[in-house]
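Now for a typical sample entry:
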Amino acid sequence: MNLDELLTSFRNQIDTIDEEIIYLLSRRFELVKQIGKIKKDLWEEALQPKRWGEVIENLYSEADDKWVSREIVKEIWNSIHDEALRIEK
C-alpha cells in the first residue's frame, strides 16, 4: 500500500468514526428527552450539579486511562451537556 492509499484508508476510518459519533449523540439525546420528561414529572431541575460532577469525573478518569486530554473532554462534554440541558427544558 502506498502512502496515498494509506492516507485514504485512514481518512475513511475517521469518516466512519465521525458517523458513529453522530449516531451515538443522537441516541444520547433521545435518552435525554426521556430523562427530561421524568424530571418534569418529579418536579426536578434539568441541571443536577452532583450528577454532572460525577459524570465529568468519570469521563476524566476514562480519558486519563486512554491518554486523552482532560481539556478536550471538558470542552466536548460541556457542549454536550449544554445541549442536553436545552433539550430537557
Q: What stands out?
A: The radius of gyration is 17 Å. Residues 52 and 58 are 10 Å apart (CA to CA). The mean pLDDT is 97.
